[in-house]
Design brief:
Radius of gyration: 41 Å
Number of strands: 21
CATH class of one domain: Alpha Beta
Shape: elongated
Largest sheet: 9 strands, mixed
CATH architecture of one domain: 3-Layer(bba) Sandwich
Structural class: alpha/beta
Length: about 1250
């Protein structure tokens, strides 16, 4: 720098009293303009890219797998042209599925499966064979799923009729418990054929009198009790039929009986009996007298699956429960009607006759054999010895699972059939279905060879252990429940593909239309008129879902729409030997399905139903059928309430109204979905790509709603007394087991005369959310806000003494630690304690504002600086929920990645907080190494973190400095970023400033009149803005009210109408507004505030807010075309007010501070009062909203909100924009240098004066 030499200066009248040399203007960076332009362009691109990334994650449902499948740049037509499959048009796919199935192949598969015994847990060879075949068919992703199941196998048994005579006992008859060996049926002579036994029957050896109990239903036993027939201590003889066999044993056990014998009475065979002249199998179609029906006696309507692992999968090492909650504790045996004859005849003449008990008891089919159907008990000297020895073990069983991944990986169709059988055969149950499933898979394999890839993912399942109690399917569903709940669209089950000629479907109502459609595409095997389809000869009746097959876990536990169908025995068909050795390949080929055409018909129906659900872009569900079904089911159960005890009444009106509303919504939704399908068939030009994207979004939303319908009827606490069953519309009848019961919880409560117990069930039926969850979630948020409000001022004050940086770093550390504790909370107390500690220990919000104010004191730069923080928080509010939702319950949602982690199973919400901790660590590390202290009195304090950070980056910075310097005109090197604009001449002896003790400011110094005014306005604006956000979604979702001819409406003041907008659309509105807010905050806020001033922008926002709130409820009265635009207008208007009001008030508060020494405390107070406002505002307005709509006035909460917001205008009028806090402490720290400069100036003045005097 050039030095000033006074002795060489010529003195004149124009000679300055003090000469200051200005450093020469440095050369501008040669590419300064380019750098500035690039910064603007790249910043704008970054904002746009962020928006494009956030839209899919925030607008669309989070249940789907990958966020990228929603991105606007993704191909919205994964099949190139919906609804045709990729590589194979849909009509050609149908032809492949119709033409591929082969009767010869079905016969081949049936012959293999029925060649030997394949009990549950004893058919690994068949599982491996099935796996191999499926891979040959083209299903490469096929594997075994193994479970360790508790079940039984028979060891010994005996059933003998005894005659007592004093001390002696004579065996008058002993049953063989064997079926006759038939030369015509090789299966009956297999050496390893399965003995007659009951699954899950108890071991025992009992000798007792016995009683005939008809079918063994609950009512049958009640009839016996009412007739004073002795049951306790006796053995029950009951017929198969009417209800699940396990429930017969259950009721007998409850009444104190000691054993049960179950036989097949020809009564169940209709006209095809020996009594009516038909020969018995193998010579004719009638039942073989020695046929024995095996089966499970598990209490199927209480709990299916492994009885030791209710609700969770039976994996090795898992915890086991007492099995006797769902399996019998008394022995039972099955027997043929041939061998029950001596036992029943021994009752002749003892006790009343069955015919005396009413019509239900009549019709026994053994009268021609000499059975009089007396009830008994048997004489005291006539008893039965029932001996049953079972081996209970925990053994593996094997499901075969094949997967074909579709374009939409998170929409899944499951097709299943069970493989195991009670016998060596099983040609009807289950292996007609197994043969059909193989042909379905082979057909789809042929389609894939032709280039087809499914739109949705397909899962094929060959279940094991179904016969014992739906074991394989239940355990698989329990293990994969999180994935199924998210992705499973439908389950299609076929148990018995054919045992006759009568088509018998049962389905959830959502799938009714699928059945009607596919039955019209397949030719019927029993045509009376050439060309008839299955639909033409079918009655059209679809039964409700109950239990008894593998759909149970899907429908009743997971809430997955399911169907089950097959061809059952018609009135004139040969008798089907269910669960008997005679359900054999020989019977099937001679009587069941001679030409294997019913096997092929089932195959075609099954494949076409799957294809319909797989390939249609909008899922082929029908919500209207569901709503109509709910109404018809309710009509059928209403008479139950008529039998309530006197003085009791149940009001169905609420449920009736809910069903009517559901029906209207369903019709609208189905029509909208149909319109989407129509649009998908229209050709959309490439330059309208955004229409394709929008259509994709709409299809996704429609499909998620369809999937969610069935799930909406799940009640997680479960039905009373059988909490495994979650569905409140469908469940097996508690005392029937097989047949479906509708509204089971309600019906069971009414049948028990318990009206009070029915009311909570009703609340669940109409979809009212569980209040406790909402209440405690609100409390957790409230305690965090109150805690933060409590400690914000102390943290801010402390930062004025120890510095900003230590408080920010410590706040991050504590927030990280307590967030981890929150994620590992195992009870409500831990959750609340964690939230309280997070609030208490985190004082960063106010201190960050303080640091920004200290870094950017220039008023012209404040709008840009203070606009960044709200934008960052907006991004966090959008990404935060998506981030947390994606990582919560990882072991359930992503079992392939996290399923093996016991820690994540124990703490399902830990992962989001642990991952957040990684971000915290990055932030803490960055702060320690690179964040500079901004508090003036601590700015020059030695900071080892900064020293370390400088050392780490010094290699980079030194290189940068070397290349970025240039010379001034005197040849001196100066760095562009570091060279001062004014040259400074400091004495060589100038030393580093030393901080002086800071005097604690008084409260009057902190709270100036202007600060108080800004605080009041800031609190009102933030709190009431939050109140708007808390009730505006409720207002949008509130049902639309009929305004004309409604006595409850008196316009323009009395009405309660909302918009009836669904939550998904509301979320879309808020996401769009959030994105618009970010753009406004970043691009428009700074220039507008610079142009018009901070105070003026704040006043305009404060005045506009009450006007917006005043007009909000009136938008519900707008004409239909203007309703949605008016909603968006209100939302954007409120958004504009908040976008300007909050940062402007923050700037005004900062500039109202009397000194930088009080900024920390002042911003802490602002944080506290705003937190209290955010807690109190929503609570107050939410309460008034509820009260107002109850009174019929939607205006009340909104106009109260408008009035309260208007109060923020009053202090805003008195606010004066200040110049900002003084830098007095910093100035004092430079006091010595300034004094020295003043002395130098004085000397100069003196010299000049002397010179002037001498000239005079």
């Amino acid at each position: 720098m050039r030095e000033m030499r006074e002795k060489d200066m010529p003195y004149s009248e124009t000679t300055p009293l003090l000469e200051v040399h200005v450093a020469p203007r440095r050369q501008r960076y040669p590419h300064h303009v380019l750098r500035h332009t690039c910064t603007i362009v790249l910043g704008s691109l970054l904002v746009v890219a962020t928006i494009l990334f956030m839209i899919p994650g925030a607008i669309l449902p989070r249940e789907h797998g990958s966020i990228w499948s929603y991105a606007p740049w993704a191909n919205p037509y994964p099949h190139k042209a919906w609804p045709q499959g990729f590589g194979l048009p849909y009509d050609q796919l149908q032809q492949v599925l119709l033409n591929t199935p082969s009767a010869a192949k079905a016969r081949e598969w049936s012959e293999y499966y029925t060649a030997g015994p394949h009990l549950g847990g004893k058919n690994l060879s068949q599982a491996l064979w099935t796996l191999k075949k499926w891979k040959e068919f083209g299903i490469e992703d096929t594997s075994l799923a193994s479970y360790d199941i508790y079940l039984n196998y028979p060891q010994e048994h005996r059933l003998a009729l005894l005659k007592k005579s004093g001390e002696n006992t004579e065996v008058t008859f002993e049953a063989t418990l064997e079926e006759d060996v038939l030369e015509e049926d090789p299966t009956s002579s297999l050496p390893d054929r399965v003995p007659a036994f009951h699954g899950y029957s108890a071991s025992g050896n009992v000798t007792a009198q016995y009683v005939y109990a008809n079918f063994g239903s609950y009512q049958d036993f009640e009839d016996l009790v009412n007739a004073n027939v002795t049951l306790k201590g006796n053995i029950a003889i009951v017929k198969y039929g009417g209800l699940f066999r396990g429930l017969k044993v259950k009721r007998a056990q409850e009444l104190g009986m000691v054993g049960v014998i179950i036989y097949s009475d020809p009564q169940e065979d209709g006209e095809i009996t020996e009594e009516n002249g038909y020969e018995a199998y193998p010579n004719g179609p009638a039942r073989n007298p020695s046929a024995i029906q095996r089966g499970s006696t598990q209490f199927l309507s209480i709990l299916p699956g492994d009885p030791t692992t209710p609700g969770y999968a039976s994996k090795p090492g898992c915890e086991r429960q007492d099995p006797y909650n769902s399996i019998p504790a008394i022995p039972s045996l099955p027997i043929s009607y041939k061998e029950v004859l001596p036992i029943l005849k021994a009752l002749n003449g003892h006790g009343p006759k069955a015919s005396e008990f009413g019509e239900w008891w009549q019709g026994g089919g053994l009268s021609h054999k000499g059975v009089e159907y007396n009830i008994g008990p048997s004489p005291k000297d006539v008893v039965i010895n029932l001996y049953n020895q079972q081996e209970y073990v925990t053994t593996p069983l094997w499901d075969v699972i094949g997967v074909v991944k579709g374009h939409i990986a998170d929409e899944v169709i499951v097709l299943g059939n069970h493989r195991d059988a009670w016998i060596a055969g099983g040609a009807g149950d289950p292996n007609s279905g197994s043969a059909a499933l193989n042909e379905v898979i082979r057909s789809f394999g042929e389609a894939m060879k032709a280039g087809w890839k499914p739109l949705r993912t397909i899962v094929f399942a060959s279940w094991d252990g179904e016969e014992y109690g739906l074991l394989g399917s239940t355990e698989w569903v329990e293990e994969n429940l999180p994935w199924l709940s998210k992705a499973n669209v439908a389950y299609l089950n076929v148990d018995v593909a054919t045992a006759g000629t009568s088509f018998e479907p049962r389905a959830a109502p959502l799938l009714n239309q699928v059945i009607y459609e596919v039955t019209g595409l397949v030719q019927s095997p029993n045509q009376t008129v050439p060309g008839q389809t299955v639909r033409d000869v079918w009655s059209g009746q679809i039964a409700t879902m109950g239990s008894g097959s593998d759909f149970t876990a899907f429908q009743d536990f997971a809430g997955v729409a399911s169907l089950d169908f097959g061809f059952g025995r018609g009135a004139n068909d040969p008798v089907y030997h269910y669960h008997s050795n005679y359900d054999s390949f020989a019977w099937m080929e001679k009587y069941g399905d001679k030409n294997w055409e019913y096997h092929i018909t089932t195959t075609k129906l099954w494949a076409l139903a799957a294809a319909r659900l797989i390939e249609t872009p909008v899922i082929s569900f029908n919500a209207t059928d569901y709503a109509l079904g709910l109404g018809s089911y309710l009509t059928k159960i209403k008479p139950t309430a008529d039998r309530l005890p006197e003085g009791h009444h149940f009001d169905f009106s609420g449920l009736d109204l809910s069903i009517v509303e559901f029906l209207e919504a369903a019709k609208t939704f189905d029509a909208w979905s149909a319109d989407l399908n129509t649009k998908l068939g229209e050709k959309i030009p490439w330059y309208h790509w955004w229409k394709k994207v929008r259509l994709l979004f709409q299809v996704r939303i429609a499909n998620d709603k369809y999937k969610g319908i069935e799930r909406a009827f799940l009640y997680q606490p479960g039905l009373d007394g059988r909490d495994w069953f979650k569905h409140v519309v469908f469940a097996p009848g508690i005392w029937t087991g097989y047949s479906g019961a509708t509204y089971p919880g309600l019906v069971e409560s009414l049948e028990a005369g318990d009206v009070e117990n029915a009311k909570p069930e009703l609340i669940e039926y109409v979809g009212v959310p569980k209040p406790e969850v909402a209440k405690w979630s609100g409390i957790a948020s409230a305690v965090a806000s109150v805690s933060q409000a409590t400690m914000a001022v102390p943290w801010g004050t402390l930062s004025d003494y120890v510095g900003r940086k230590p408080i920010i770093i410590s706040g991050q550390i504590f927030t990280m630690l307590f967030s981890i504790v929150l994620g590992m909370s195992s009870n409500l107390s831990m959750v609340l304690a964690s939230r309280i500690l997070i609030g208490l220990m985190n004082g960063n919000v106010g201190i960050i504002r303080t640091m920004v104010a200290e870094i950017v004191p220039e008023r012209e730069l404040q709008p840009r600086a203070f606009s960044i923080m709200p934008m960052v928080w907006t991004i966090g509010s959008i990404f935060g929920p998506a981030f947390g939702g994606a990582l919560a319950r990882p072991a359930e949602k992503h079992p392939n990645l996290f399923g093996g982690s016991e820690f994540l199973k124990k703490y399902p919400f830990a992962l989001p907080n642990l991952v957040s901790a990684c971000f915290f660590i990055v932030g803490i590390t960055t702060g320690v190494l690179f964040l500079r202290e901004t508090l003036s009195t601590k700015r020059d304090r030695y900071d080892p973190g900064l020293v370390l950070g400088q050392a780490l980056i010094s290699p980079c910075t030194s290189s940068r400095k070397h290349h970025s310097t240039f010379k001034d005109e005197d040849g001196e090197d100066e760095d562009e970023e570091q060279a001062p604009l004014l040259s400074e001449n400091r004495p060589a002896s100038s030393k580093k400033r030393e901080s002086k003790p800071v005097v604690r400011p008084s409260w009057s110094h902190i709270f100036t009149p202007q600060s108080i005014l800004v605080l009041i306005s800031y609190t009102l604006v933030s709190g009431l803005g939050m109140a708007f956000d808390s009730i505006f979604p409720v207002f949008l979702h509130w049902p639309v009210q009929e305004l004309e001819n409604n006595p409850e409406v008196n316009l323009p003041f009395k009405f309660t109408s909302g918009f009836g907008i669904d939550a998904q659309t509301i979320g879309l509105f808020y996401t769009i507004s959030g994105i618009a807010g970010m753009i406004t905050q970043f691009l428009f806020f700074p220039p507008i505030v610079r142009r018009f001033g901070v105070l003026r922008c704040f006043r305009v926002s404060a005045i506009a807010m009450p006007i917006v709130f005043f007009l909000t409820p009136l938008t519900a009265l707008a004409p239909e075309p203007l309703r949605i635009p008016s909603v968006l207008l209100i939302l954007f208007a409120k958004l504009g007010c908040i976008v300007f009001a909050i940062p402007c008030s923050t700037i005004l508060l900062t500039n109202s501070a009397s000194s930088v020494t009080v900024l920390g405390t002042l911003n802490g107070v602002a944080t506290s009062v705003s937190a209290l406002g955010r807690a109190a505002g929503p609570a107050l307005i939410g309460t008034v909203f509820s009260w107002g709509v109850q009174k019929g006035y939607m205006l009340i909460p909104w106009w109260l909100l408008s009035l309260l917001t208007l109060t923020s205008v009053i202090p805003a009028i008195w606010i004066v924009e200040q110049d900002g806090p003084s830098r007095e402490v910093e100035d004092e720290s430079e006091e010595d240098e300034e004094v020295q400069n003043e002395n130098t100036s004085a000397s100069t003045y003196g010299a000049v004066d002397v010179s002037r005097d001498s000239r005079r």
